[in-house]
Amino acid sequence: MNASRGVTIADVAARAGVAASTVSYVLSGKRSISPATAQRVMDAVAELGYHPHAGARSLASRRAGVIAMMLPLRDGMHLPVLMQFASGAVTEARRHDQDVLLMTADEGPAGLARVAASSIVDGLILMDVEVRDPRVEALRRLGLPSVLIGFPADAAGLTCVDLDFTAAGRECASYLIGRGCRDIALLGASEVVYERRTGFAERVRGGFLARGEACDHAEARPCPDDDPVSVQRTVKELLAARPELTGLAVHNEPAVPHVMHALADAGKLVGEDFHVVVIGPDEVGERVHPRLPSVLVPAERLAEIAVGHLMRKLDGFDVPDSTLVEPQLTVR
Q1: What is the pLDDT, as a whole number, of residue 2?
Q2: What pTM was estimated for this model as a whole?
Q3: Which of 40, 62, 84 corresponds to the end of one domain?
């Protein structure tokens, strides 16, 4: 059974083994429903392709005029950068007379099914994509027009946009090697980001270590936390374990000033006998002393590309399956 055959709320209720009112409560959020029951309803919605009012909207030849942006505010995510993504999406959406619904809760596949079933949005931008992201299969089942900012391991049938983070990691290692560093390290994203297997973090690490094979030694460590004490302790432990270390790449925006303090405390002269390069917004490298070279994460541009692709999909045009933005390193 599918939406084209007139799937009703009663069909969803029968598939999930619940009352029709329960389906209504789950989709509207007007009454608390147990997680297990809510998941059964969402699974049924996805399996049947239930889209309430889709027929009426089609007959009126109208869209909702809203796209959703699933941007979960999870541990290890840097809020200022996330807001740049949101700003880029809103700005580009307004050019197409669309509004943006920000979904900041970590709702997973159930959140996708709820939004698709409500018919309040025309399409979806999905962020913080994991290598084995459970939301991906839900996207395929639901058939909701979508664009991912990020790449899962299996991107077949999806439209994905991102910075080429593998190349960004490689570019950072190349910069350090070009400064004569033979022993280099990457201080990466927070541990929780790697535990979730977030795609961009893994790709930076992979690119850095692959290029680092040209050195005497290269390694990558997660940042245990973003607080000053934890970051500085990690840097000092790294320096103690690796006396020959002369180059460090930092892929953790809030950690950069704390890294610089730790290096200064250790007597390292950044830019002279020790080199640092960062991945993040330009201001991250500009607001420390000395100013640092950086690989920009073009958050607003990526969001604009994603929204542009989504609007073309909604208008029936083909878009590339994969769009990778080449990283640019600014030397200061």
Answers
A1: 41
A2: 0.79
A3: 62
